[in-house]
Design goal:
Elements lengths: L1 H26 L4 H11 L15 H6 L12 H27 L1
Helix pairs in contact: 1-2
């Protein structure tokens, strides 16, 4: 049991060192493109939170009813459904308005 605890501590120190080295290398990026490239190379996938991606894009989600299929109540599920719909509308508005602004 003592060996297992010692091994666990050693792995945690090694992980902290790896993260520190990755951070230092990323901070040395010369431009935004270099920063993104270094992030993809040096940051390991399991260091990030385990979040499931949404299936497809917002238009596919809307087309198959995943935006509005939840109940509209004042409990947690209802609030999540409302926020999901509001987020979709904000993204649609940004995409709609950003075209003329750029021109």
């Amino acid at each position: 049991q003592e060996q297992a605890r010692h091994r666990q501590e050693q792995l945690e120190r090694q992980l902290a060192t790896e993260k520190q080295v990755a951070k230092e290398l990323i901070l040395q990026a010369e431009n935004p493109f270099d920063l993104l490239e270094r992030s993809e190379v040096f940051v390991k996938e399991d260091w990030l939170g385990h979040i499931d991606d949404l299936p497809g894009d917002i238009f596919t989600i809307a087309a198959f009813g995943e935006l509005t299929q939840h109940k509209r109540t004042c409990d947690e599920d209802g609030v999540k459904a409302f926020v999901r719909l509001l987020g979709c509308l904000c993204i649609c508005a940004i995409q709609f308005l950003s075209g003329p602004v750029v021109l």
